Structure formats: C-alpha cells, structure tokens
C-alpha cells in the first residue's frame, strides 16, 4: 500500500537540507499529515514483485554495514528527525502512520515500535491516529503481534494472496494455506482493532473456484478490510521471464474482469462494501485512512529508500538503494534523490485520476470541457451512476469499475 515504484522518475535536485519551497506549507493546517515508513528487506523475492526491496544476497557486498537490517530503524528515526526540521513549526499531529515494504516484520517488533515512537516524539499522534504495519504471515507470532499492539500499532495488513497452494507457488509465496487466516485470529487476540487481508486474482493456473475459495477463506477469518488486486506482470520480474519462456500462461484481462465481478458479489454478500476500486471494508471505520490520504492528495512524508513524499504540491523521492540512503543520512544530508513542483493543472489531473476510483467519486466541476463531454458519454454507456451525476459528481458503476482506467483517461483528456 505504500507508494513504492521500482523506477524513480526524473526531477530537479533536492537541497542538501531537504528544505521545501515556502509555498508548500501554506494552508498546511487544513490538510491531514501522514507518515509512510518503508522497510526494504525481504527474506526472498516473490516472482511477481517489482517493488524497491532487497534480500540479504542482493545486498551482500553492495551496501556494507550501512545497509544492515540491524541498524535500519535508527536510519529511519534520523529521517523522521530531518522531517521535523524541514516542516519546522508545523503544528499538525500525525493522522496516519503506515509501515510497508518489503517485509516490515523481518525487523524486530521493537524496531517498528521505535520508528513509530520517533514520529510520536517529533510530531505527536492524533488521538484517533491509524497506525498500520504490513506483515507476512510466516514472519509473525502471537508474542510479536502483542508487542506491536502494546507499542501503539492498531491496524495490521497481512499478505494472503490466495488460499490455494498451487497459486501461492506460482507467486513464490512462502507461507502455507491457512496461516494468514490464523494470523487474523492472533491479531484480534493481541487487541488489533482493524485487520486487512491482501488478495491477488488472475494468477496463471488459478480457476474461478480457486478464487472463490480464497475469498471465502479470507472472509471466514474475520478481517474488517479486504484488498483484492489483479495480478500485474511487471517486466524484469521472475514471473515475466517464466511467461516469456512459456512455462506459465499470460494473464488475461477478461479473466481479471470475471474475477473482479466474483469478488464484488462474494464480498458484498458478506457485508463488505467497496470504497475504492480494489478495496472493501465492513464499515467506514474499517477503511484504510492512510491510503485515503494518498487518494485525496493530502500531505505525507515517506521515509526509507525509494520512498515518495508529498507536501503542499511538492513531491519528492528518496535514493533507492539502502546503502546510498544510509550514507546520505550519515553525512547529515537529505536522502532525497529528486523532486517536482506540481502545477495547479497537475494537481487537478491527479485529483480526477485518484478520486474517480473512490466510492464518492469526483466533482464534475474539476473536468474540462472535453472531459465533461467524455463523462456524458460514460454516463450514457452505463459507466457512471446517474443519481450522483445529476448531483454534480462522477461516480463509477460496477461496469465502470471494470473499465476504471479507461474511464479515467477519457475524463482527464
């Protein structure tokens, strides 16, 4: 759920002290502030993964002691302290903290709590702050979860992907079927208020029945949030190479559409309500507030190698490699690799791109004449809901959600 593309964009340089243009903090008090803390380490690399993550063998000889997991928490704490300096006397308490990866739970629970503690000490947490970590099912146990909960985490997201062993094998997932469901129970016992399970559909070799079984297993475990994503085969991944060699079949867009319809049918029947194209929750309180910060263009600071940040129309990103990240902080410099200043038009386009994917949709007033004309066609084609449209909002129908990317492209052109 973190914004972690594997390839960094181009951009202008970031000042050594990370200073922001003065306009970035204008009106900041009216915008929520969140933190994303990236942990770039994994025990093994999943075949479909294109995130900025590293296994021990990939780091060996490239980062030295600076890139060690053992001192990683202290590096993130240093960047959080840098954030305090850059944001100055910004009075906002932090609304959300999300620890993502990689596999955050490869670090000791105390390290994650320490990172969270730095955010609390430097900025303060809102009374109702949402504090999430991602976790692999085979990297936690009841004692670990209890330590996280006692340290202030109140939401956890487990990577389940599938309930079927042959699907997990294609994805190179190391946990066994049933373990993610058991983790939900352990998290509840530890006192976690909100629990998410991530699922992936459209894996080569998966059938409709396999997908239904995965949905049923996830629902039966008792989370209050489920994310379901179509498998995207990224160039350069092990899965892409296997498909190119003909070892497994290519994924199919029609299959993805069918699986999405199954997901909506099964999840809505079980009391889950969609609030973003790929996300369902049992209540408004169960929504992922941190992701909503992204989708609604709020402010967040991303700490860690390759992490992206956004404050007041300024977007920047850190150096990718853990060794380079550690070296920058050790030298007292920002780890920022580049940044861009978003124009009003950039921000308008991004609002349309992101807000249209939400259940509340996007205001028609944000559309230009060509986009408004495209919206009328989308309405006539059954891709937008007539009721909200009459009230001035573009809201996707179920069919529109299947074609969300195409609808968005038409509305921003």
Automatic annotation (TrEMBL):
It is found in: Cytoplasm. Residues 27-273 form the Radical SAM core domain. Pfam families: Radical_SAM (PF04055). The keyword Ribonucleoprotein does not apply. CDD domains: Radical_SAM. Keywords: 4Fe-4S, Chaperone, Cytoplasm, Heme, Iron, Iron-sulfur, Metal-binding, S-adenosyl-L-methionine. PROSITE patterns: RADICAL_SAM. It comes from the Bacteria. Residues 1-24 are annotated as: Disordered. Belongs to the anaerobic coproporphyrinogen-III oxidase family. HemW subfamily. Probably acts as a heme chaperone, transferring heme to an unknown acceptor. Binds one molecule of heme per monomer, possibly covalently. Binds 1 [4Fe-4S] cluster. The cluster is coordinated with 3 cysteines and an exchangeable S-adenosyl-L-methionine. This is Heme chaperone HemW. The gene is hemW.
